[in-house]
Design a protein that fits this description.
The chain has eleven helices and 16 strands. With 417 residues, it is α/β, with parallel strands linked by helices.
Length: 417
């Protein structure tokens, strides 16, 4: 008989380090949005997703001294001293790929062109020798989604979904109550209620005749589905004034994407970027989005989102607009773009509110995540949200976990921590 000898697995440092902590530490590099203050940790890497840059970023994160306990940090310092740190970094990159945190891309093809109007990086800066990687959906979950569940409040009902409503249905998950069967109901028969109705009508005896009026079905809470468009502001105002508002905005969008993908399988999610103009972008490209061009054409973004939602066969439709709230551009009927760098131009604001009104008439709710606190901008967001009876979230990039919720549906205002 063949014998199998088991020995204790001692492992190595590459298998012991937590990849989630490393990905958190690398978020400033992986989610680079074009805002690079002089003192940022990964300033010199330029945001390019090459393997050489990833190695440099991992080395900086490992040598930072704040990720791990003293014993682990001492091992890392010893490896740096004896020249074996590069081997550890290579093993970590292999592990990141195996555990689906990153995916390797083919070598650069000089004939390949970018199809996202310059919004997802500059392909012309690559060289044929660059070995590149992309971050996966798994690595986008840097922000807890529980604080964003209020964004998906239900107003209607549709065929399939997981949003709670005040309506009743006859599905599988019951709440203990029953009602007479109606044509079109799911035949989730309540046997006890059905027999009790027949016995009350005919008395206890055999055979027992059951009529149509005796049929009772279980009730459950009706759960609805929703079509959502994330409207992401990528204008330069998101990184001006010495403040990076765009990276937190991307995190909110990615958290919302993760929430819908994992918790609301009946929902649909689309992404629209707005700047001088607006365009739809695949959700898979969200992590690569950078700021630019310069102006904020909020109305055009709402128009593109409106067209997308018109194609959706769902009763619940909403736009989640993540912005600093300063509309400064307008697409004219002849295609020219009218711009006002100071923002809140009466013409631009008027046309934008007209588009908001059209969204309201189409049954589209607009929820706004506002990353600025200027008085004029807050007033503008309040008008937009009140018109569509949606919700407005006021926060700052430094305090993203705490925000002020202004709910125009319930006419309440509260601070969320």
């Amino acid at each position: 008989m063949k014998r199998v000898r088991y020995t204790k697995f001692t492992g190595d440092l590459a298998s012991e380090l937590g990849l989630e902590e490393l990905m958190e530490a690398l978020s400033g590099y992986l989610l680079d949005s074009g805002f690079r203050p002089p003192l940022s940790q990964f300033q010199e890497l330029g945001g390019e997703h090459t393997l050489d840059n990833l190695r440099d970023a991992l080395q900086q994160a490992l040598e930072d001294g704040e990720l791990f306990d003293e014993a682990t940090q001492q091992k890392i310092e010893d490896m740096a001293a004896d020249g074996t740190l590069d081997e550890l970094i290579d093993k970590l990159i292999d592990r990141m790929e195996q555990e689906n945190y990153i995916s390797m891309t083919p070598p650069y093809d000089p004939t390949r062109t970018s199809g996202t109007a310059g919004q997802t990086g500059n392909a012309q800066t690559e060289t044929p020798l660059d070995a590149r990687f992309e971050i996966t959906d798994k690595s986008l979950d840097f922000l807890g989604y529980k604080t964003l569940r209020n964004l998906l409040g239900s107003l209607g009902k549709s065929s399939l979904g997981k949003h709670d409503t005040n309506d009743r249905a006859t599905g599988i998950e019951t709440n203990g109550s029953a009602r007479p069967y109606e044509f079109g109901d799911v035949l989730n028969l309540d046997v006890n209620a059905t027999l009790s109705s027949a016995i009350a009508r005919e008395g206890l005896g055999l055979p027992l005749n059951i009529e149509y009026s005796d049929l009772h079905v279980h009730q459950c809470d009706y759960e609805s589905s929703c079509a959502t468009v994330v409207l992401l502001d990528c204008s330069h105002s998101m990184i001006l004034y010495g403040e990076d508002r765009f990276t937190p905005a991307k995190k909110v969008a990615m958290a919302l994407s993760h929430l819908i993908r994992t918790q609301y399988p009946g929902d649909s999610l689309s992404l629209v970027l707005f700047h001088d103009s607006a365009e739809e972008l695949p959700i898979s490209q969200l992590a690569r989005v950078k700021v630019g061009p310069y102006y904020t054409n909020t109305r055009e973004g709402l128009r593109v989102a409106h067209r997308i939602l018109d194609r959706q066969r769902k009763d619940m439709k909403q736009i989640v607009m993540i912005t600093d709230g300063k509309p400064s551009a307008l697409t004219l009927p002849d295609g020219r773009i009218y711009k006002n760098a100071f923002g809140l131009d009466p013409l631009v604001v008027s046309e934008t509110l007209d588009e908001v009104s059209r969204c309201k008439r189409a049954g589209i709710m607009i929820n706004t995540f506002m990353l600025a606190s200027d008085f004029g901008l807050v007033q503008f967001v309040q008008r937009v949200t009140a018109m569509c009876r949606g919700k407005a979230y006021f926060t700052t990039p430094e305090n993203l976990g705490n925000y002020l919720l202004m709910d125009f549906m319930s006419r309440k205002m509260r601070t969320i921590h």
